[in-house]
Amino acid sequence: MKEAAVLVISYLLGAVPIGLIIGKVTRGVDIRQYGSGNIGATNVLRTLGWGLASMVFIGDTLKGLIAVLLAVKLTSGAYQPYYVIGAGLLSVVGHSASPFLGFKGGKGVATSLGVIIGMNWLIAAIAFSAWVLIVAVTRYVSVASILASLSVPVMMFFSKGLFGQPVPREYTVCALAAALLILLRHRANIKRLVKGNEPRFGQKVKIEEESKQAEDKGE
């Protein structure tokens, strides 16, 4: 029963729409009505600025981290790694398919980062550094998110050779599943990249002039 409770809590924790809450509480804005319609930090940055975007990013990251730490703390035995990856994946699924938003939500990048921090902080740090570098070079958050997320299961798979300490194979499977979910959630971004009209990092949106977009719902 305790293990089942951890999984349910992890899903509900991930489902909390922090971007939406912060937008409404601080500015009286439904972030889904502006920019890309995303509830994540990138769209909050474009519409509400760095300060609130940082709060959303930290909050979404903590959702994944707390889910993993709860599973580590409250489960034990041979099946613990499976409860850890279950809690981590469910927090990401909750963010992407929140019951509070009609089972819609974000892309899960920040929440996935929190999950990876809980599993292996060094790999998370390298992936985040890669994300920052790719954004700096390309100015595309979507490209950075996809490539950084795909790098995580690769680093985990080769962790013994890279870091001298193997990561449990279950964690590698979890990271791969999260990366594939992130890739799936970036379908619209990939289409816009091909067409050449994907917004670049730092591109601003004027709230008073922006109407709700028809595509790319989520983080």
Helix content: 55-70%
Overall SS class:
mainly alpha
Radius of gyration: 17 Å
The DSSP helix count reads 11
pLDDT under 50 segments (min length 5)? 209-219
Could you write a compact summary of the structure shown?
Helix content is 69%, strand content 0%. The chain is an all-alpha fold and 219 residues long.
Plain-language structure description:
It contains 11 helices and no strands. Helix 1 runs antiparallel to helix 4. The protein is mostly helical and 219 residues long. The C terminus is likely disordered. The chain starts with a helix and ends in a 24-residue tail after the last helix. The protein is globular and about 50 Å long.
Features of this protein?
219 residues; mainly alpha; 0% strand; globular
Write the topology of this structure.
Elements: H1 2-15, H2 18-27, H3 41-48, H4 50-74, H5 80-96, H6 109-119, H7 121-138, H8 141-157, H9 159-163, H10 169-185, H11 187-195
Helix pairs in contact: 1-4, 1-5, 2-4, 3-4, 4-5, 4-6, 5-6, 5-10, 6-7, 6-10, 7-8, 8-10
